[in-house]
Design brief:
Blueprint lengths: L3 H4 L8 H25 L3 H4 L4 E7 L4 E4 L5 H4 L2 H15 L8 E4 L11 E10 L2 E11 L29 E5 L2 E2 L1 H10 L3 H29 L1 H24 L4 E11 L9 E12 L2 E5 L16 H17 L2 H4 L12 E4 L18 H15 L15 E9 L2 E9 L27 H7 L2 E8 L15 E7 L3 E7 L19 E5 L5 E3 L4 E6 L4 E5 L14 H9 L5 H8 L11 H10 L2
Parallel strand pairs: 10-11
Antiparallel strand pairs: 1-2, 1-5, 3-4, 3-6, 4-5, 6-7, 8-9, 9-10, 12-13, 12-16, 14-15, 15-20, 16-19, 17-18, 17-20
Helix pairs in contact: 2-7, 2-8, 7-8, 9-11
């Protein structure tokens, strides 16, 4: 759907000062929505990890602003949520009315995946629809085949992934639709937490809607509309200029997903993700031809709208419009106008219903990394080497008749980039969530965190080294279970420009009797007993640049920090350390000269 500005519709011209004030006001509305949602939420995945989104959308489905504290994979898909909701309601002939609140989580209708439920509140001014206040959030359970809303890695189709809400009114003309809420309570584990979070989302939407109406009341609808239309145009111009600075050409890259390494079926493992970046003037096409076909009965397929598009837009915006160079960039739909995505129907990046999609998180992150690799051919000074991907574990248990569920996102690591080492133990690319404080976990859940530290067994070499993953150990204090979705057990993150490849991840289940078992990156729900422990080792990002070009002072710091040994400093970096822990400058210079 095109916006009025793109279609050339006449609009009020707004002076730059007023337009800037309105832009700031819109952004503040989304930020306030986000903070209110955090404060009112029940579950740690929203309250602590900040796995939510908040935005104001215009009546045509264009994003005007988003909450800066939310994750790209939550706020980014919100325009798709709205467009999907509008399309479904139009097909049903169902009107959107004042006082409605609409729930939507259809991965084939704009949503990111089923557990990311959107609540959409239409905003009316003078009886005309002028926009939508929207929040999205990841919910702890959505009624899937096993407890939790992540780690559902064996769903055979979309129906096994939990409840599907395709543009369902939960309030109609300000009246609560009680049967819908009762259905939620009857079909979702941890329903008190989930329903409480949903009500918090609606409250945040109401705040956003009122603030948007206050803004319209202050400046007038035509002025506000004209200001954000100018804002969309401004964002588009920035992106077009950045694309025009690139040399025309085709730039390709391929990486691979683990898939299901423990299965005999070769079609379900070692899956290629292919990206060809086609630059033509001030427009850019991202062609995903060559990517593996969809897996009909495994949920690692990625919705084109809601996951694939967000992974692509985020990566292009981050690399081509780096905030270090450009400062604050208005985040809105104007940025995506010059970008076209081509994705073969029936592939993992454009699946056909009812192919399951609930575990699309890590594959989508790997797709963003593949695009980064393609960009390395044309803007090598701006990219990072390969990222260490993430994983999600859904911990769960049953106390009497009541489930407890906790979703933990385990950090990855960034690869090095020109002038900067890779960031250690951090969510990468489109994830951007926070880890849960140990104190919060242990005070609410029957889990004990025995160990949480950076890896000390690998440090990918480069002029700028790769980031380190973390090691965490979780012990069950009582019987429970877990399901896991992850990546990066088979393929190490790529090194760049002479840098070393990163390191793969691993997962070990140690039973209370001491027996250990290596687990694959994707593990269906598995029962655990009291005293059982998961040992989670995160991946390390790739190195960037020739390690022999690394500043010896940086190598010394890594030795003192325990990231590398003196022997590794010598062999990988050509840096000779004295017994006192200092750099032997003469011996280092001679060794580096000897090795060229």
């Amino acid at each position: 759907m095109t916006d009025p500005a793109a279609a050339g519709a006449p609009r009020t011209r707004v002076d730059p000062v007023t337009a800037s004030v309105i832009r700031g006001a819109l952004e503040n509305i989304a930020v306030e929505m986000g903070y209110k949602l955090m404060r009112m939420s029940y579950s740690s995945i929203i309250r602590e990890s900040e796995d939510f989104g908040a935005a104001i959308i215009d009546a045509e489905g264009n994003q005007l602003c988003e909450s800066t504290q939310s994750t790209p994979l939550q706020s980014g898909p919100i325009p798709g949520y709205v467009r999907g909701m509008m399309r479904i309601m139009a097909e049903r002939g169902e009107p959107i009315e004042p006082g409605d609140v609409i729930m939507h989580n259809d991965p084939y209708g704009g949503a990111s995946h089923g557990p990311d439920v959107g609540f959409i509140l239409p905003v009316f001014h003078a009886e005309a629809l002028v926009g939508f206040a929207v929040t999205t959030a990841h919910h702890l359970d959505i009624g899937a085949l096993s407890p939790g809303s992540c780690g559902i890695v064996d769903a055979m189709d979309a129906y096994a992934e939990g409840l599907q809400f395709k543009a369902i009114k939960v309030y109609q003309r300000d009246r609560k639709v009680e049967p819908v809420w009762q259905m939620l309570r009857d079909n979702i584990r941890t329903s008190d937490l989930v329903v409480g979070d949903m009500e918090a989302q609606i409250a945040a939407c109401r705040i956003g809607a009122q603030r948007y109406l206050d803004l319209i009341g202050r400046y007038g609808l035509e002025t506000v509309t004209g200001a954000y239309a100018d804002l969309l145009d401004y964002s588009e111009r920035l992106m077009r200029r950045a694309i025009a600075d690139l040399p025309d050409g085709d730039y390709a890259a391929t990486t691979h997903l683990d898939g299901y390494l423990d299965q005999d079926d070769e079609s379900k493992k070692n899956l290629p993700l292919c990206v060809t970046l086609k630059v033509r003037g001030d427009e850019l096409t991202v062609d995903l031809g060559g990517t593996a076909k969809q897996i009909d009965d495994k949920p690692i397929n990625m919705p084109l709208e809601g996951t694939v598009d967000c992974a692509i837009w985020l990566t292009l915006r981050s690399i081509l419009l780096d905030s270090e160079e450009y400062g604050h960039i208005p985040q809105n739909s104007g940025l995506t106008r010059p970008i076209t995505i081509v994705a073969p129907k029936g592939s993992m990046v454009n699946p056909v219903f009812p192919a399951p999609t609930i575990a699309r998180f890590c594959p989508g992150n790997q797709l963003a990394d593949t695009l980064m690799k393609a960009l390395s051919h044309v803007v090598p000074d701006k990219v990072a080497a390969g990222i260490g991907n993430l994983r999600v574990i859904a911990f769960s248990g049953l106390k009497g008749e009541t489930h407890w569920v906790h979703m933990e996102i385990f950090e990855g690591a960034y690869g090095g980039r020109r002038g900067l080492d890779g960031m250690d133990a951090i969510d990468t690319l489109y994830a951007n969530t926070r880890n849960n404080p140990i104190e919060d976990l242990e005070s609410h859940l029957p889990l004990r965190i025995n160990r949480y530290e950076l890896r000390d067994d690998v440090c990918p070499a480069g002029q700028w080294r790769g980031g380190l993953g973390s090691v965490r150990e979780f012990t069950y204090l009582e019987a429970g279970g877990a399901s896991i979705e992850g990546e990066g057990h088979a393929f190490a993150p790529w090194g760049f420009a002479g840098g070393a490849d990163g390191a793969t991840a691993s997962l070990t289940l140690r039973r209370a009797d001491g027996a250990e078992r290596a687990m694959p990156s994707k593990m269906p729900h598995t029962a655990t007993g009291a005293g059982d422990t998961f040992i989670v080792t995160g991946p390390a990002g790739g190195g960037y640049g020739d390690p022999f070009m690394r500043d010896p002072a940086r190598v010394r710091a890594d030795v003192l920090d325990g990231f590398v040994t003196p022997d590794v400093a010598r062999s990988a970096y050509g840096v000779v350390m004295t017994p006192a822990g200092e750099v032997d400058a003469a011996a280092t210079e001679a060794l580096r000269a000897e090795r060229g």
